[in-house]
Specification:
It is built from 18 helices and 6 strands. By secondary structure, the protein is of the alpha/beta class. It has 3 domains: 136 residues, P-loop containing nucleotide triphosphate hydrolases (Rossmann fold, 3-Layer(aba) Sandwich), CATH 3.40.50.300; 65 residues, Orthogonal Bundle (Helicase, Ruva Protein, domain 3); 127 residues, Zinc Finger, Delta Prime, domain 3, CATH 1.20.272. It has a 6-stranded parallel beta sheet with strand order 1-6-2-5-4-3, sandwiched between helices. α3 packs parallel to α4, α9 packs antiparallel against α13 and α12 runs antiparallel to α17. The chain is globular and about 55 Å long. The C terminus is likely disordered.
Length: 348
Amino acid sequence: MKDSVVKLSERLSKNLHPVYIISGDEILLVEEAFDLVCKTAKRQGFQERIIFEPKLNIDWEQLHLALNTLSLFDEKRILVVRIPTGKPGDIGAKILIEISSTKHPDNLILITLPKLNKSIKSSKWFKAISNISSVTEISSVGPEEIYGWVKARLKLEKIQIDEMAIQALTDRVEGNLLAASQEIEKIKLAAPEGEIDETLLMSLVSESARYSTVELTKNILFGKPKIVRKILQRLREEGTKPLSILGSIIWDLRTLLAASERIKNGDTLEISLSKSGVWQKKIRMMQSALNRSSPAKLRMLLYQAGAIDRGEKGLRNALIWDELMVLALSLAGASTLTPKNVRILVDN
C-alpha cells in the first residue's frame, strides 16, 4: 500500500500496519515521517526501539534473532531497519521475505530506504515486504516547488506572512529544506504578532545570518575553512542540531556528485549543475567546490557523512561535532580527511 505523507498520517490515526517503509532522499521529510510513525506506535504501546543498519550477514542475523525472541521486559518493540544503499544482500533479502510471511504481533518493523528506483521495486524482497507494508515514498522538492513548500510550512506553523516575504525566504534558503525549516523556527520564535512583510522578515533572519546553516554551507562551498570553523563552533554553542547541518552538507555532496557524473558524460560544468537541480544563485559557489573536489573525494566525503549520520542515530560510537568539523573543513578545502582516517572513524 503506497501512501503520501498526508495519507500516512490519516492511516496512522486508524490502525497500525505490521511494517512501514519510508523511502526518499529528502532527509528532513524522511525523518519527519519516521518520527510520525514512532510517536504513533509509542502511544499504542510500542515502548522499546531497537535500531539496525545491517551491512554484514551477522547484522541481519541479529535482526532475525530479535524478531524471534521476546523483549526482555515483555514490551512491544519498534524494530528500525535502515538500508541506506537499498541493497540488503542475499541474507537480508531472505530475511525480509520471511518477515513478509510471518506474523510478529509484538514487533512493528520500520524500514527506511533511499528513493525507490526500478532495481529496488522489481526485487523479490521488496515486492514481498511491500505487500504487507504501508509504503511512503517521499518525493524530492524541486526548485519550482520550494515556494509552495515554504508557504505550506509557514501556514502549518500559523505564521502570518505576505507573498513578497515568502518569496524572499524561498530565495534565501536556495532549495535546502533543512535550512528552510530552521529559518521558519527562528521566525516563529522571534516574530511579533501580526503579518510579516519582506522588510520585517529580513530583519528577523539577518540578525543571526552570520552564524546560520545557510551561511555555513556557502562558506564551505566557496572554500573558506577559517570562517567555516568559526560558524560551526558558534552553531554548536547555540545548540543547533547536528542533523540539520549534516543534512545540508549531504544534499550538497549528492548534488556535486551528480554534476560530476554529468561532466564526465560531456556536459559543461554550468549545465551539469543546472540539470542537477542547483539554483542559478548557487551555481557559482557549487562551481568553486567542483573545481577543487574530485569525484573520488566527494564519494569519500559522502561515505564519511553517512558514518556521522549513523553516529547521530546511535549506531556507532562517535564524536559527532568533531567529525562534523572534519567533514566541513575537508569539503571547504582543508587537508583534514584522508581514506585512512575515514576508515578509522567508520570502523569505530
